[in-house]
Design goal:
Elements lengths: L3 H19 L5 H4 L3 E2 L1 E4 L5 H4 L11 H14 L1 E3 L1 H9 L8 E7 L3 H14 L4 E4 L1 H6 L4 H13 L4 H11 L10 H12 L4 H15 L13 H9 L3 E4 L12 H19 L5 E3 L7 H9 L4 E7 L2 E2 L7 E5 L2 H4 L8 H9 L6
Parallel strand pairs: 2-4, 2-10, 3-4, 4-5, 5-6, 7-8, 8-10
Antiparallel strand pairs: 1-9
Helix pairs in contact: 1-16, 4-6, 8-9, 8-10, 8-11, 9-11, 13-14
Bound molecules: zinc ion.
Length: 349
């Protein structure tokens, strides 16, 4: 049940989105020839699995992904980032404006659930994979911490044990809300400290918690699966070696995360890898230099917006696509709302 203020805000948002759409202001025909939109998805999971995933708000169901791709394809030529960037640079003429579709993190659901929907829609995309995790099969550290803390808090004296662990690693452990909230807040605070300390804490938490039972859909894509995606026409990009916050890495680690990820991906794929995606979007001039030096040709951020023809190829903007921000008050996915968000005009209503 929506609260009255939320209801009112949503109704106002619907009215504004509809007015902008019908006046043509947010219609892709108006802006799409001059600007390149790059959309981002993360996990694609069946509806009953979304709520159990570490970050439900950024997961979409296969049905929702099909709706989004169908909607995009009516107004854009949807391709991988590499293809879209090359086409934009060459000012290659097309019937429809270009759009790049990307998936972050390389989780197993991308292969199981996203790839068939992409194939059905005839859309190719870029999958940003975390090279070391694809090799080892280990979950990314934020997911490990979420699952680990949630499990530990359910064990005997879990809260006290988590406190002791955090104290031993010099980490301020947030304790407001339920286990899920505490786990999310802990990940937020870990994103602010040097990445070597994050790794040490995540390993210690795994050890303290013991084996955590995971759902069948949870896991990382293997290199065999990643190669299948490539053979199906998708692009594979690097999302670093181990998904640290690169701005929190020292020079040596930063260089390794960029160079080793590219070397490992190219060795496994037998092909050049040009695209890089900053974990969590975090980048600064030092990080950008390291990515350039590692031999990548362009990189995407999580900064929201579209990219003009002369956009800096090292800090490309993207639009994170979520079903809850696309729903109108009726609960249905709304083209005017999506168009508003994609257009770069969204004012956060
Ligand atoms: Zn990521």
């Amino acid at each position: 049940m929506m609260r009255p203020m939320t209801q009112l805000r949503r109704r106002l948002g619907d009215a504004a989105a509809t007015a902008l759409w019908w006046s043509g202001i947010t219609h892709p025909a108006r802006w799409g020839k001059e600007r390149l939109p790059v959309v981002t998805f993360h996990r694609v999971l069946p509806a009953d699995a979304v709520a159990d995933s570490p970050y439900p708000s950024i997961a979409v169901t296969p049905e929702e992904l099909a709706w989004f791709l169908n909607c995009f394809s009516q107004y854009f030529r949807c391709v991988s980032l590499g293809e879209a960037v090359a086409a934009q640079r060459a000012r290659e003429p097309a019937n429809l404006p270009w759009m790049a579709v990307s998936f972050d993190d390389g989780t197993l659901d991308n292969f199981e659930y996203a790839a068939p929907v992409l194939q059905e829609a005839g859309v190719t995309a870029t999958f940003f994979v975390v090279a070391q995790n694809a090799s080892s099969g280990h979950l990314l550290w934020p997911d490990r911490v979420v699952y680990g803390l949630r499990a530990l808090l359910g064990q005997d004296h879990g809260g006290a044990r988590a406190d002791r662990l955090a104290l031993a690693h010099g980490i301020d452990r947030p304790i407001a809300g339920d286990a899920r909230q505490q786990a999310h807040d802990l990940v937020v605070s870990l994103k602010k400290i040097p990445c070597d300390r994050v790794d040490a804490f995540a390993d210690a938490l795994d050890e303290e918690t013991g084996r955590v039972e995971l759902a069948g859909w949870e896991g990382m894509m293997t290199f065999d699966q990643i190669r299948c995606l490539r053979e199906a026409g998708h692009e594979i990009g690097s999302h670093s070696l181990s998904h640290p916050i690169l701005t929190n890495c020292d020079d040596h680690r930063l260089q390794r995360e960029c160079e080793e990820s590219r070397r490992l991906l190219e060795e496994e794929l037998g092909a050049k890898v040009g695209a890089f995606c900053y974990p969590n979007g975090d980048h600064d001039a030092r990080v950008v230099r390291a990515v350039q030096k590692a031999g990548f040709t362009h990189a995407v951020t999580t900064d929201w917006g579209t990219n003009p023809m002369d956009a800096d190829p090292w800090t490309l903007k993207r639009s994170d696509i979520q079903s809850h921000t696309t729903r109108s008050q009726s609960g249905l996915l709304s083209t005017p709302r999506l168009a508003w968000r994609l257009s770069g005009l969204h004012l956060g209503v």
